[in-house]
Amino acid sequence: MAARPMPKTISSTDASNRFGSVMDEAARGESFFIVTRMGQPRVVVLGVEQYREIMEELETTMELNDEEYMAAIAEAREDIRLGRTLTLEELDRELGFTEEESGKLSR
To answer: Which pLDDT does position 12 carry in this prediction?
Structure first.
């Protein structure tokens, strides 16, 4: 597991003067920056991969707290346990796809 990037606090003036190096460091995942104005945190600069990881974690957390979503997962697990499943070919037939359409979809 990669080490967590360390936050660095910098002023908006410093961030403006060093924006290229701030972006490079954040993009490499080495750090993220809390940018302050008049001593107050205003924005965060972080790399795209860090952002994606945060958003994925947030989505997972939201799903786990969504009762309707969790009920659907429980129902799907029960269907699997009881053998109520379809192969892809069976699903294609049930949905009315022709063999030609099914082949195009799987590419």
So the answer is: 97
